[in-house]
């Protein structure tokens, strides 16, 4: 068990290192650099040379990567390339805000996903199932920026019930984000709910169709206790991994939603860092998101182990 | 009796409100966060946020609504007969936001700071003709120029040449202490910057009590914020499509503002085939500017004869030049291309209208024998890898006074001379115009220079853009001009 956990941790570290390398190469391949992004039309001649020297961009790429990586190992991300602000300072509030958005979306979406996923499976192919599944598929297939724009148009533009765009500063206290946060939370939880709901539904159906459930039914186990004691525990296990993936996606993939709603989270910071060619900042954010992915997936694996006796004993036998 | 006293009180109140209309309400404007985390409020830095500095600081001279220089912190100015020595009289009783009185020392400090090669401000070249700046007395500044410059006061209308307190160079980035109608209370480029009314403003207290300048990097999000009335004004104009949408609603006011901002094609006059003046003339004759304006910008703009001088400028050569395919074809044949000419135009979406402009030109000039291949390039790195590098590329310029734009973009050897135009005769015309102290004669000379460009230049100017500025209907008294000319102290909100 411990061996497996360590193995997973090592793999996670390798993943994070690879991600940082890929991101570095990616930003390096883009035309332009921090200096051309800041100077724009002035990016010519001596001024460009001076700027590159100032930011250390005149050094070869591998030297810059090595310097950065050495700092990152010590937990020192350095200063943002085109301002004097420390990266830890820039990122701190943003992480908090993205977490707030993610937690709200989870809190709203998880209960709905499980409730309607289970109901849809129990009423399979009936009207309720058709409606729920249909809604879930459309929530999954309509791109976030489309649903976001539609919701803003209806609730902010036409009805005037909710603010459409988030205007609160990044360092504002949590309470200040209400009610502006409502629309982004709704859009985010729509997609998330749909994914989890569909997993819950299909794994429920699988279990409902299994031999042991049929056996239990034939033996006369009451419907209610059969669902609660035999079906749900077995069906909900696979959902843990989907929830974990979704949580990780929440942190990394909210880029679009944060940009559309002008939400001051990690995603929007990432977009502006890329357009500024603020390599140090891009790297730091990528590293944070990759680490979250790894940690969340690891947690999910462990949870599955704890919840599933079969896996636990299988591991023990191997060891 | 109670009735009467009530009436009297009401009258007294209304009289009082007429006498000193106290600033009321909050005005909210978005800005683009163009410089990201490098944003600051130092008016001459690379990361300056104009949307803030234009409201908290003043220049010596401001652009008047009529295109002529108008007094700001300088009340009057005069020159010696040669036009090489200029004396500026400063306004009395002006105070900085920190309570200090504004004097000649501050003006000299602010301008010397712009000249400082160590700071290397992008605004430095705008005052490079100044040799010496001297304090004559507390309210008088004298400038000695390296050459005669008849329109010297116009130089100070540049929106970066703001006055800051003597010695504040190291702190101005964050404090934003100026003399303007609003005081900086909090600066947060990515979030919301807060400005409050300066009750001691020399022109009286401003109309609104508070301004919030909000960073929204995404254009779509900015427009949504306006639609939802979370902000009152965008950083700049709206597109023709957005205009159609907003004009259906009574909640928004739209003003059309003619500007000197132009969009065009640049042909490098130092490279084949554009080094032949006949080829340059041919491509410019083959273009139909009215068509380009209609198709690329929804007719929102002004057209002329490839003059970079804006439609509201006092020196504008106001003439329209029509498409002439037959003449273009003849010129092309004469230059040795009887079977036409193939060339590439490099386009990106740095400017939204460029692709449509290029596609329109491609169709228009085909009958004259020009076969254009449009090459799409990424927006990133456009200015340093494509512009001024490729033989034919797209360009855009923001409004500048006639003398500034003619010198910056066309004088031989200039840093931003994008068409590599080098013509001693043209340069001499500019020198002559600069020296001429008589306004009418000077105007004639600038117009002559513009005519010369039409015959010989390497720039095809599609149009000067007209901005459609949208605000929520509660905003009143907004000057129908570009942001840096607006008198922000005049606006009010309901």
- Distance, first to last CA of chain A: 8 Å
Share in β-strands of chain A = under 5%
* Largest beta-sheet characterization of chain A: none
Radius of gyration of chain A: 24 Å
- What structural category characterises the helix and strand content of chain A? mainly alpha
Average pLDDT of chain A: 83
Q: How much strand of chain B?
A: 15-25%
The helical percent of chain A reads: over 70%
The greatest interface here is:
A-B, 49 and 39 residues
How would you sum up this structure, described in words?
The complex is a heterodimer of chains A (319) and B (494). With 319 residues, chain A is mainly α. Chain A has helices at residues 2-29, 34-39, 45-54, 61-73, 87-122, 127-141, 144-158, 182-208, 211-218, 223-252, 255-260, 266-275, 279-307, 309-318. The relative contact order of chain A is 0.14. Chain B is of the alpha+beta class. Residues 10-19 of chain B have low confidence and may be disordered. Chain B has a four-stranded mixed sheet, covered by helices on one side. In chain B, a hairpin with a 5-residue loop joins strand 4 and strand 5. The relative contact order of chain B is 0.15. Chain B contains 15 helices and 18 strands. Chain B has helices at 2-19, 50-56, 104-115, 152-155, 172-175, 219-227, 240-247, 277-286, 289-297, 325-334, 354-365, 382-385, 402-410, 424-435, 439-456, and strands at residues 26-31, 61-63, 69-71, 74-79, 85-90, 130-137, 140-145, 182-186, 192-197, 210-215, 252-267, 301-302, 341-347, 370-376, 392-397, 459-472, 475-476, 492-493. In chain B, helix 9 (289-297) runs antiparallel to helix 11 and helix 14 runs antiparallel to helix 15 (439-456). The chains are: A mainly alpha (319), B alpha+beta (494). Chain A binds chain B through residues 30-32, 36-45, 47-48, 50, 80, 82-83, 85, 90, 149, 152-153, 156-157, 160, 163-165, 167-172, 259-262, 264, 268, 271-273, 275-276, 278, 281, and chain B through 28, 33, 35-39, 46-47, 120, 122, 188, 190-192, 214, 216-218, 220-222, 224-225, 227-231, 378, 380-381, 383-385, 387-388, 415-416.
